[in-house]
């Protein structure tokens, strides 16, 4: 029965009265004092000599350049990618398609009880401590049990119905008061429990010691009632853990809306990614380093620079979702601590969660235990290769590519200083803490390869312990197998990237020189990456190069060198004609890999500013709907969202660059 009660968990310390259709589960605990601390800027230390001998031939000198990376990757036979990814949002390649009916979905309480928290069951928990949130070195375990810290007056900013269905949760539940209580972290239902994992960090091959889930806590592993698929749910911004160091464990509306929209946009683009169930706001105010609101020129005159001031912002909690959140840096921590027992226990768990067929092969004695771990390394290397190739396909730049942001399952994680490239620049990155552009657009494959190589070093060191008594032949075989796993990154990247390049041009066969010439031309022109490739589909059916360039005109910020572009266009159209492919088939393929709509940083800025200043969440909902169909024309949205970067956003702090 509907009843009336007073609930400070839902309304803050106010006298507001709420109508609730469920039993109130409010806690009498008082809120902790408001923590106001300045954010810091993490500076990166570029390194040139981080790769150990034995892997040196896989890192070429110089910058990545424009030319399809063919000078970087070893020439190998084509690799089948069929086993590299799974389906539905957290996977790459295919778009997310729901096959779940309403009768398969659960109400919130039943959904929570249906969770099966395998990480908590299978891995090692930290022992009891007096103050679980006290910052400290945590050793000899994989995770710490810790409950979220309550927030006042949680409210819904946005929820993803498709992500709810992916979990097996009825999307209608997102509108209930109990949903707000659970996914703000204020009250965990039976079946849910909080934990934070410990991990380290390699940055450009350099070790930075222990980090961990400093403002994120997992609360459960949802099991879909029909498919049985497992997805871990993690609350970001729900309070302090032992790994928060001296920070407050909170998140703000600005960054949470950006990550929510990016996660769902990438899922719809078919790029491997974590997903986002919801973003909730609350009434706690958080202090963060950010940029002045004024659009006047600063002393930096538009040059990228770190935030200049502390700003008080509204708080938020984001729920992100993935089959697992096991990072490279979790395994690397136990390697660096010389803890093989916990290393292999975590590796076994990663295999069971991400690559269960490897576990089956080991159990059936089709491969040895050591070979199973090598297979894990091979799959993670191929997964990273596919991921980076997909980033390049859609013009995405991660910004921060440390090993603590690299998932064993091969998905995009932790949308911080990210961006979808607008005006083409081969070295573009919005991240001000990477002035050398080590993580720039076309440098991302090399950065990922460095992560794979360092990860392989750790795997080799740990596996050497298992074969210490088996003689030189076993050691030589291990060396060769590890090398093959690292080689697999280049092979997989080359195969998938070249397939993407071919499809973006609508060709049957990849032409490396045609692609290289195109990127060189784009780099010398002020051209929008997404608009150019989308318009190219129509330009490809033009009668001559002049007509084709007219079709492409709206993709340029400044009028390009017509003569040079006519030469390239004539060559391209000649290849198209020679192949003799059906025009409709070609255009359809091009439009299936070249999105019309991406989450441009200025779009996200408009959405979060409306949410912050007016508590108007309609634009968040509008963008969520728009970006769920990024390859569709959606003509009503074209003028507003499929366009060049507006003048106000070009070079604007917090939009064109950020930290």
Automatic annotation (TrEMBL):
Its cofactor is Mg(2+). The keyword Membrane does not apply. One of its GO terms (molecular function) is metal ion binding. Keywords: ATP-binding, Magnesium, Metal-binding, Nucleotide-binding, Nucleotidyltransferase, Transferase. The keyword Transferase applies. Pfam families: SelO. Belongs to the SELO family. PANTHER family: PROTEIN ADENYLYLTRANSFERASE SELO, MITOCHONDRIAL (PTHR32057). This is Selenoprotein O. It comes from Lotharella globosa.
